[in-house]
Amino acid sequence: MTVKVGLEILRDSGYTALRNARVGLMTNPSAVDGDLNSAYQILTDAPAVKLTALFGPEHGFASVADEGEQIHTQTDVRTGLPVYSLYGADVRPSADMLKNIDILVCDIQDIGVRYYTYLWTISHILEAAGENGVAVVILDRPNPLGGLMIDGPILEPEMASFVGRFPIPVQHGMTLGEMAQMINALWNPTPAHLTVIACEGWTRDMLWEDTGLVWIPPSPNMPHLSTLHHYPGACLIEGTTLSEGRGTNLPFEVVGAPAMNGNELAERMNRLYWLGVRFRPHSFRPYSSKWQGLDCGGVQVHIVDRDWWRPIETWMGLIMTIREMYPARSIWPIPRNAKVEPGAIYHFDRLIGSETLRLGIEAGLPLDKLTRTWAQECDDFRTQRQPFLIYP
């Protein structure tokens, strides 16, 4: 079976939803049809579509910028249209950006994890669109991690940031279109006129490998499907002083630091008998990001049984084991604004959604005690999300 994405459904309709409208497009190269034609190419070439502006999220319209890199507004050389950056001085479209737009189309591949910023860019788009009377059309795509698994804690309101604005779990099991409907209804002060053009043929039990679609990296450090399956847990390493493998060929699949004993770490982790995973000693030298140019010891995490794999718990277990191995080493980077802002928030806390986990790790609490509330939180979210689901 091959899933048809929202872009193809729009095209098959003759672009009915966009007729007689001035159209903006937020996208990046991950948005393609089944023949690998991009949304940008399809919509700029369609005579029935009047594109007036383009928008790019984190990593830019071309998806080449590093994580966190500020991006400036540019001009598209092929069409002459402005390419407004929504990851720089502005994270939401201004009234000036929207003045020549009736409908703002969003087509981008999300990965179904709270930390990933594309969802939050769309949340800002929905707010700005509602305030300025602009309609929003989401061209939906599958959640590549499937629609059944919900895992991780709910974000606490005081931890809201661009890696999580609203109270959802780490792995939410919703498509971008479904999530947009939920955000627009529950948390948008001025709800936008929102249309979701759904995929055809996708069901909640399907992972990306079941869709028949080609994996196009949605961001520079999401190159492989294996990266995708690690990310819900491995992204937590970003909130530590450890390398998560950025600047290597295995981002989010390895962890390490200079002078770390990878052999001992692998032995300790394998003795814990985590189901669905094995740990192998691994040495690496990042060419960018943390510990750039330095030799790091650590482990590569290998998924051996997807049915038993639990990425968040596994990677948290890794962090806890490393903390036990090196009690004198600080693994929590001091918040950048800690000197001027009392109570500054640690990045790890923003990612996981509260300070409870970090403080529990420091106190030596067992993992099952740190995660004991997650099942109920996820069950509550499963009920809350129900009215916004599109797919069986």
Structural account:
The protein is an alpha/beta fold and 392 residues long. The chain has 2 domains: 6-217 and 382-388, Rossmann fold (3-Layer(aba) Sandwich), CATH 3.40.50.12170; 225-354, Aspartate Aminotransferase, domain 1. The protein contains 12 helices and 10 strands. The strands form 2 sheets. The protein has a 7-stranded mixed beta sheet with strand order 3-4-2-1-5-6-7, with helices on both faces. Strand 5 (103-107), helix 4 (118-132) and strand 6 (135-139) form a beta-alpha-beta unit. Helix 4 crosses helix 5 (176-186) and helix 6 packs across helix 8. The longest helix has 15 residues, at 118-132.
Describe the protein's topology.
Blueprint: H1 6-12, E1 22-27, H2 39-45, E2 50-56, E3 74-75, E4 82-85, H3 95-98, E5 103-107, H4 118-132, E6 135-139, H5 176-186, E7 194-197, H6 225-234, E8 254-257, H7 262-271, E9 277-284, E10 296-303, H8 311-325, H9 347-352, H10 356-362, H11 367-370, H12 374-385
Parallel strand pairs: 1-2, 1-5, 2-4, 5-6, 6-7
Antiparallel strand pairs: 3-4, 8-10, 9-10
Helix pairs in contact: 4-5, 6-8
